[in-house]
Fold these 3 entries.
Entry 1:
Amino acid sequence: MLFRSLNGMTNGMIREFYELLRDVSNDPSIAVVVLTGKGKAFCPGADLKHYSSGGTDEPLRAENFLVPVLLHEIPQVTIAAINGACAGAGFGYALACDLRYAARGARMNTAFLDVAVAGDMGVPWMLPRIVGAGRARELSFFPRKIEADEAHNLNLVNAVFDATDLMAEVYARAERIAAAAPLARRGLKQHYVEAETLSFRDFINIETERHMRISKSQDTQEAFVAFVEDRKSTRLNSSHTDISRMPSSA
């Protein structure tokens, strides 16, 4: 993958990111995906210097715009570690993750109207679900840089850490999630994805069926006994992976 300054995205990078996530989604050995940027930025969106200078790029297929859908729906728990500038498409990627944590000093911005586009990567779908419909529209129609602490107050991120502590804090959470029983962890992720589109009654029916099935697993039976005996379960074993696929050349 050819990485750009400040992790600005090109068509080729978006395609490779889509293909990578598609492969990860089919790998049951991966429990957690951590998405971050190398260098001083997370992802500011499209590499506008590249596009405005007439740089050549491959055509972008419609399926490649499904990157945020994959981040949102793949069986793995997805975590955005926002280490710097996060705007436009990069903002969409972060919003699509299950959990978001930011470094103090990181800034977020919808940014689309400032560059005369209506936007992509699912921001109008995710943002109202996180901050509410009115606030989402305000942040979109009046783009501005949102400091990490304000982002926390707006529920855009789950927590803010010093930049030097961000990855350690994120990895500690990833390890805890990865240590959970795989059937239960994946089932819980499915619960949240399905609940967004189902009626309460339909969701309860699906939730109950899955709960009854998972409760019969060896992992769950062992976890019940371990809880009663006040010890760690001996059967839980999983892993996590770090997708730091947006390193910076700056």
Entry 2:
Amino acid sequence: MGDSRQGEVFMTFTLIVEQLLNGLQFGLMLFLIAAGLTLVFGIMDIMNLAHGSLYMAGAYVAAETMQRTGSFTAAVLVAAVATGLVGVVLELTLIRRLALRDHLAQVLGTYAVILIANDLVKMIWGPAPVMLNMPAVLSGPVRLLPDLLYPAYRLMIIVFGVAAAAGLYWFVTRTRAGVLVRAGASNRQMATLMGVRVPLLFLGVFVLGAMLAAVAGALLGPITSVQVGMGEEILILVLVCIVIGGIGSIRGAFVGALLVGMVDTAGRAFLPMLLRQVFSPAVASSVGPTLAAIAIYVLMAAVLVFRPSGLFPARG
């Protein structure tokens, strides 16, 4: 009986560790998307709903490059560069004009980009999901504990996400360009008066955000389905991350993304198990994921009650 009890405890422990790692992995990818979007909104004061479409573009370009070259590294790089070029065109032709309009016009204009992007994807790749295979060298598991095997690809995403977050933090806090970005996020008018080339700053921030979103799309592609509309699904979670963390704050986007990733992953993993103690397996399996999705918005509401500007708002 004692050995059986110890075995159950260890299985529970390994499950918790595995889900924590999954939440960390998902949260780090949410951060890559949220970082660019929060800077765009914080500096440019633009509601860019099309940011999810850039994430989708990165996933599709990566899938196409992977099929043609067989190199996952090339797929990620090409996706980042190609989506960055799309970001340049989008900022120069549309975003720069929308910056002079109110938020309603920005929402409508960028929502139109979502519809156009989805139709373009259907024209090029068709309506069916596209396969994006992970590199063969990372397709197996890694033994983290004696009885805990964790997918090597997910572990690579965690390492990459931590490195990217550290690099972005260094860029924002230790470089002159980062100082300009923080100045623009804190006080746009003052940055303009101090001689900052605001149009060039806007373009650079927008392209950086587009490339980060594309990288996230390329990395998540082998785990999730590469399909039309994937950008809208992730965009909702990213907006929640930004609201929780504070608009215009890189640190806030990081903390908010990790919280959302952990709550979403843990909720989907453990809520159905807890509900099975009270309800039938069928009811628990259907209600659990719904409650997990609701938990994210409950978290956002709780944060806003005590911190209406988010956990780490950019100083204004």
Entry 3:
Amino acid sequence: MSDAPSLYGQVRESFGPRAAAYLNSAVHAQGPEFAALRAAVQSRPGARVLDLGCGAGHVSYQVAPLAAEVIAYDLAPEMLELVSTRARELGITNLQTQCGAVESLPFADGQFDVVLSRYSAHHWADPARALAEARRVLKAGGQCVLVDVASPGVALLDTHLQALEVLRDRSHVRDYSAAEWAALGAAAGLRIQRQEVGRLRLEFTSWVERMATPEPLCQALRLFQDTACSEVRDYFEIAADGSFSVDVLTLWAAA
């Protein structure tokens, strides 16, 4: 019988001790998609908002001034402790935290006007079930906006991306393509409204330091990049220092 941690255990072990690193991460604290998330909340005065896989709470801090209430929801208790502390420092009084898995939300049906998720979904064990839960807790006509690193949807490029991600972070499950997210959302009963794809540049050193990737795996990552074929190197814009670019999907859907 293996004594290795479960996926949920790996997520907690990976992210709990690194809460501060994610709070201070420029990749997580900044991004053009924040405007879309704020717009989703601002269009619904008095909205009750659920931030799924909130991490260090950047989405919650952005939308709280526009909402009646925000629930920051995450699997790692250390992340939630940080979110509560940071919210107090920012003077945010309408933000609460709750711990749990996205596949089993402890909320009654139709409790939220808006469900948001940013850079969390590639850790979800069962995205179909998670989206079905998001649909369940949304009010009729409610808004769901999901932001995540996306697979290019091409087998060669997808294989490279998934391998790169899991070498860096053992709790990684999958970066899904835009087509896969559209199918998952529709199957969960959500009405897909639109999808937007942008690019995100990842500086290699801070990318691995944020996750405290062990040095042997950092070396494997660099070797993996250095020996990639030209099609992969060109698509991901791999630089001499290992920095690279990925696609980021923003998906809008309605209940």
